[in-house]
Inverse folding.
């Protein structure tokens, strides 16, 4: 099974033929700009579609702090996304309180552990909407 840098490398090399389908679900590559370094950072994330938008969860396995990629989008919401061979620029935003319940349900349907992760932390785990620009 692919993880981390190896996952990113194989996904890019094969346009997602390896890495898109992962552990019974699907992943995309999210590239953010480091809020301190200014360097690009790429993370494979489980996603689902909501209309034309891609949805991801900033879970970090239920850690008490947000994942670095989420902190990066708070500083610079313009991101690059790759879904299989489709590469595009998107604007990342945190789902509104009205949007979140339906989006959370959509994400836990494909990765039930998100509910477990939420029980591990007092942090409200954000759902992020990636809107193609």
């Amino acid at each position: 099974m692919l993880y981390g840098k190896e996952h990113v490398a194989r996904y890019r090399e094969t346009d997602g033929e390896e890495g898109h389908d992962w552990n019974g679900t699907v992943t995309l590559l999210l590239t953010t700009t480091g809020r301190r370094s200014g360097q690009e950072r790429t993370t494979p994330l489980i996603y689902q579609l909501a209309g034309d938008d891609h949805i991801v969860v900033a879970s970090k396995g239920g850690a008490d702090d947000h994942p670095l990629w989420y902190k990066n989008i708070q500083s610079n919401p313009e991101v690059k996304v790759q879904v299989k061979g489709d590469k595009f620029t998107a604007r990342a935003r945190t789902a509104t309180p009205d949007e979140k319940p339906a989006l959370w349900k959509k994400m836990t349907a494909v990765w039930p552990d998100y509910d477990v992760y939420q029980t591990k932390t007092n942090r409200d785990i954000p759902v992020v909407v990636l809107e193609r620009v």
Notes: Helices lie at 4-14, 68-75, 100-110, 113-119. The chain is about 30% helix and 35% strand.
